[in-house]
Every structure is written in C-alpha cells, then in structure tokens.
Amino acid sequence: MSAVKVTEGSVQVEGCGAPLFYRQSEPTQGEATASVLLLHGIRFSSENWLNNGTMETLAKAGCRAVAIDLPGLGRSQSASAPAAVGQPAPAAFLREVCERLSLSPVVVISPSLSGMYSLPFLLQHPALVRAYVPVAPICTEHFTAEQYRSVKVPSLIVYGDQDAELGERSLNNLRNLANHSVVVVKGAGHPCYLDDPDAWHDALTGFLGTLRRSGEALDRRA
Q: pLDDT tens digits for 196-211?
C-alpha cells in the first residue's frame, strides 16, 4: 500500500457520549479529488472496508476515504446511538460527522443498517452530498416516492442478486431517486461488497470516474 496512507482517529459527535472511531485512507501524493464516507452494517465495522480493499481502492482512485464505526458498534461500542436500530436517525448526526471531519460535499457509501443514518441525511441535506451509493440499506420504506424524486444527487444503487429480500425491497423504493443507476452483483448476497470485491470495486470506481468527468465538464462550461 505504498501509494496509500492509512491512519486512525476518533471524532466526538454531540449526544453520543464517547467518541466515534474511524479509519482514513488517502493518496500519498497530490490532492484528493473527492471525499468518501464509508458506513457499515450491523455485523460489520470500518475494518471490513480496510480488509476487502475498498479503502485502498478509493485512495488509489484519488479519494480521501473515511470509514467510521457507527455508535454502539465496532470500536465505537461505548458511543450511544441517536436512534433505535431500524428507526431513521436525526440527519444532524451525519451532518456533524461530515463537518467535524471536513468531508462536505461527500460521497456516502451506505450498506444495510447504515440506511437509518444516510437516508435522513441525504433527504434533508442533499447539498452536502456529492453522490450516494446505497447497498441494500434499511429504512427505505420510511420515505415517500415524492421525497426520493426530489433528490437530484447522483446515486448508484448496488445489491447482490442473491439478496432477494432487502436488496429488492430497497431497490423498489430507491428507484424513485431522480438521478440513479443500478448495479446488480451476480452471485452475491446481502454484503455483496464482501462476496465479490472485484465487481464492487469496478462498479464504484466507474461511478466515481463518471462523477469526476461530469465535474470537469461543468468546470469547463463555467
């Protein structure tokens, strides 16, 4: 990982009591072209993003990637969650995380449980989100089709074709997002990014490349 710098730290967020642990990867040379926030599911933590190569892949793609351990999980077990599992959390939680870590505008990668945090943040603060990458998140049913259609943020919806329950249920709601594309990872289950990391990384880096090219085109027109 010579081309990648990986560090660890913690961030204090109001109402959590104890600080939240995070891992960060970034290019060793040059300025990062995008900031990425990696969230995780209930049985996982930031360590999974390190071990499956996503943090290295993002840094090599020119991104600053921050993977946090959500409250009550991983190395943030002493922190109090702002909402019960399965209930949408206040949007202010991720807003403060991003403010304290200087991540805005941010690409949010949000699998499974973390939907309870990412969806309120996306819907209430779309100007702070550069792009959204949901991976079969929970809580999609708590919001209306009209709310989703109001969000113009570029979104990449990802799920494994063996995730017949949550993957397809979340897709049915998220397909209402105004500016989205869908990637189905063949032969993969709910944690498709672990079942087939290569397919996941190809989809993710391709999406980020499209974002970068569209940003450059806007800069030229300006």
A: 999 999 999 999 999 9
Q: CA dihedral defined by 48, 87, 122, 11, rounded to 10 degrees?
A: -50
Range 180-205 burial, b when 16+ CB lie within 10 A, else e: beebbbeebbbbbbbbbbebbbebbe
What is the radius of gyration, based on Cα positions, of the chain? 16
Mean pLDDT of 138-153: 97
Residue 66, pLDDT > 70, answer yes
pTM of the model: 0.95
- Tell me the HSE value of 92 on the side-chain side, using a 13 A CA sphere: 7
Q: Which residues are catalytic?
A: 112, 163, 190
